[in-house]
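Subject: design request, 425 residues
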């Protein structure tokens, strides 16, 4: 061939054999060890040598690997997270199974103890019918497996239509307030569109092609209430929990930001419905004396907690196969349910897929790697490689890098931190 190189999305990662590629350049950590090897492995298919480059992007995970290459080379590929008992996942699976053969209570052996609850729920929805101690598929869809989204649990979609009435794209309805709120600039195949109308009930957004010298960024507020804790343990004096939470998110407006210079050109408020869902979260208390220590050092407690939350979310994909976009968080010096300073990290997927659960299992390690990443980041007071988050609803404010280091040191080495107390800042 005559091509000297190919630029591709990760579509090239699987299944396509390019033959004799000599080298690959990965633009950023692909999100999982498995994908990294897959992508690097596009070169060197034969017996010769090949070269692969990984360019670290400006985010905590990429920078962690840049400083700890052994973490990349020494690590087995990650555990894919799937929770077959998640009622959202289970409902779809039961419909598919019932379509093939009626279900009975004995099928608990395959589907777990929630089979009955979810099956009766589906009876109420008119998708299954109960007869003679068995459940039969009576749903309207000809072939229910078609409707199962294997990448996410969201069932509803929304169509993006241009001025000529053409369908541009279909997106998940739950992401619509973030991606296609009225006034949003939306990129579709390299072209800019402005959203002129969003009809959530009708499942349609209307877009008009525009030339815009700015992009838009949604502003949202998140409220998180504890439903109940499922597990609890104390790590070096810090209580940590795994449990069920109710998250309410609402896009309250958006900012217009200039492409060049990143200047904020203006803010617009929106009136969109809130989205509430239950999911699984891990959370931990920041001991009272640590909070006091932060304040005594003249540091900002809310900024420190917020920074810990961001950085820990950025590094959790190191332990669970997921994208940081699959994880949400909330930090507060005074949570409404407990009155305590707490950091929450939750599965952004309703019902949870096991990400927070994995984080709860490895919490000590997560704190350690988070501390290491934040402390060794050469920036002065926070950057995208450590404590900034690309999806922060409050535009990365407040953040206090030094307070985050103080808190994480106190969590991981309680003794050392108390010596530092009243120290020489
Ligand atoms: Zn930094
Ligand atoms: Zn934030």
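Subject: RE: design request

Done. Sequence follows.
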């Amino acid at each position: 061939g005559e091509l000297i190189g190919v630029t591709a999305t990760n579509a090239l990662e699987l299944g396509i054999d390019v033959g004799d590629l000599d080298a690959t350049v990965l633009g950023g950590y692909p999100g999982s060890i498995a994908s990294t090897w897959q992508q690097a492995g596009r070169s060197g298919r034969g017996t010769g040598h090949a070269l692969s480059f990984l360019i670290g992007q400006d985010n905590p995970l990429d920078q962690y690997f840049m400083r700890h290459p052994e973490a990349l080379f020494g690590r087995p590929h990650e555990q894919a997270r799937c929770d077959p008992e998640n009622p959202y996942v289970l409902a779809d699976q039961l419909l598919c199974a019932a379509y093939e053969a009626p279900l009975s209570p004995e099928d608990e052996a395959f589907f777990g103890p929630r089979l009955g609850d979810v099956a009766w729920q589906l009876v109420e929805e008119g998708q299954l019918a109960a007869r003679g101690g068995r459940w039969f598929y009576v749903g309207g869809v000809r072939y229910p497996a078609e409707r199962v989204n294997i990448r996410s649990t969201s069932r509803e979609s929304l169509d993006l239509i241009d001025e000529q009435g053409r369908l541009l794209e279909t997106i998940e309805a739950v992401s619509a307030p973030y991606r296609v709120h009225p006034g949003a600039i939306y990129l579709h195949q390299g072209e800019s569109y402005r959203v002129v109308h969003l009809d959530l009930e009708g499942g349609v957004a209307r877009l008009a092609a525009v030339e815009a010298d700015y992009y838009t960024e949604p502003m949202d507020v998140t409220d998180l209430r504890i439903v109940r804790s499922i597990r609890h343990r104390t790590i070096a004096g810090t209580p940590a929990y795994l449990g069920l939470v109710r998250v309410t998110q609402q896009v309250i407006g958006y900012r217009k930001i200039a492409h060049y210079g990143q200047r904020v050109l203006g803010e617009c408020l929106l009136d969109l419905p809130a989205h509430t869902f239950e999911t699984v979260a891990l959370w931990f208390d920041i001991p009272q004396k640590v909070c006091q220590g932060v304040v005594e050092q003249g540091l900002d407690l809310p900024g420190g907690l917020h920074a810990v939350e961001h950085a820990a979310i950025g590094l959790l994909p190191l332990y669970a196969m997921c994208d940081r976009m699959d994880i949400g968080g909330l930090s507060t010096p005074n949570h409404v349910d407990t009155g305590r300073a707490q950091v929450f990290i939750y599965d952004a997927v309703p019902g949870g897929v096991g990400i927070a659960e994995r984080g709860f299992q490895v919490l000590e390690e997560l704190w350690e790697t988070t501390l290491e990443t934040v402390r060794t980041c050469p920036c002065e007071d926070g950057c995208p490689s450590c404590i900034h988050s690309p999806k922060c609803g409050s535009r990365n404010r407040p953040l206090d890098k030094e307070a985050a280091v103080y808190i994480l040191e106190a969590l991981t080495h309680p003794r050392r931190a108390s010596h530092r107390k009243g120290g020489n800042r």
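DSSP finds 13 helices and 15 strands in the chain.
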